[in-house]
Amino acid sequence: EDPAKLAAFEARIARGEKIEPGDWMPAEYRRQLIRMISQHAHSEYVGMLPEGAWITRAPSLRRKMILIAKVQDEAGHGQYLYHAAETLGATREEMMDALLTGRAKYSSIFNYPSLTWADVGMIGWLVDGAAIRNQTMLAGCSYGPYSRAMVRICSEETFHHKQGKEMILAYANGTPKQRAMAQDALDRWWWPSLMMLGPHDQDSPNSGPLMKWGIKLKSNDEVRQEFINEHVPELQEAGLTIPDPDLHQDEHGNWVHGPIDWSEFWRVVKGGGQCNKERMDARNDAHAEGAWVREAMQAYASRALQAAD
Ligand code: FAQ
């Protein structure tokens, strides 16, 4: 790679300029962005499934409308993100193929089952809460299209976060059965939510290049600490118990968590979680069922092209 071009590129990042699609960039910067943005898109796309499963069983029309809007937002986030990756030269077909054949990753968190209605609220509060912490950081990233997508996605997810919190607070202040449902959902979603933010910094091989080039502005552990500091007091105030006997506050006011079971994390990432097979089957079925739509759109586009000739 041309050292002068690399130096000019790094100087632009140091000045806080955004890198735009046609600009020169190192091959590794492009590769890292395609990896990360496409996996982020896949996460939104698979992430529709755990909550989507509850649309037909929402307890009221109001809750059903909110949930449909949320799941639809997640589909939209996937679309923005696939488009952002396309600006780097990845094609939709390649990315979809990588997901559907299991070559690409998507977030570990979506391989856990949503067993009760309280899980829908807990996903909004914890999973969207963790996603917002990570994505607020990424809104400042050096690649223009990704950074701008994050601004819009974060504002929509702030609504998701609030609706989740509101739902859990209603249950936490509700009947003993509702309180037990909220606690049970917290017991099952707490640790996966911490894992979702990625391995500890010493086990995060991508952080080096990502932080050097201003893609990630904070490390996995820093973002996890922010997430914990925000959520522990609020969950405790709701009367819920965080399932971590070692949790305590240090002299700086940071909430320190007990050991994370990384063997569980890697098992889930490698396909051995409770719902990996179910999620991949659902996405493959949806893709196969959509074949006629893609064919019809292609036929329409080629006819429009002929008409323009
Ligand atoms: N799951 O070197 P690092 C959402 C992989 S969106 C699976 O630390 P990096 C919205 C990682 O890919 C949630 N794999 O990696 C929503 C790498 O493998 P690779 C998704 C994981 O990139 C809410 C290896 O481990 N958000 O939730 C995970 O520096 C509610 C080593 O890791 C994004 O994707 C994981 N949790 O840091 C939707 C945000 N963590 O690729 C519906 C963008 C790590 O080399 C309902 N991504 N791995 O084969 C990022 O910020 C980063 O990629 C991290 C990981 C922080 C996820």
Please, could you describe this protein's structure?
The protein is an all-alpha fold. 68% of the residues lie in helices and 1% in strands. The protein is built from 13 helices and two strands. The protein has helices at 3-14, 27-46, 48-52, 61-86, 92-100, 117-138, 144-172, 176-196, 207-212, 220-237, 262-272, 276-289, 291-308, and strands at residues 248-249, 255-256. A hairpin with a 5-residue loop joins strand 1 (248-249) and strand 2 (255-256). Helix 2 packs antiparallel against helix 4 (61-86), helix 4 runs antiparallel to helix 7 and helix 6 packs across helix 10 (220-237). Residues 35-36, 39-40, 43-44, 47, 74, 105, 107-108, 123, 127-128, 131, 134, 196-199, 204-207, 210, 220, 269 line the site of Phenylacetyl coenzyme A. One of its GO terms (biological process) is phenylacetate catabolic process. InterPro entries: Aromatic_CoA_ox/epox (IPR052703), Ferritin-like (IPR012347), Ferritin-like_SF (IPR009078), PaaA (IPR011881), PaaA_PaaC (IPR007814).
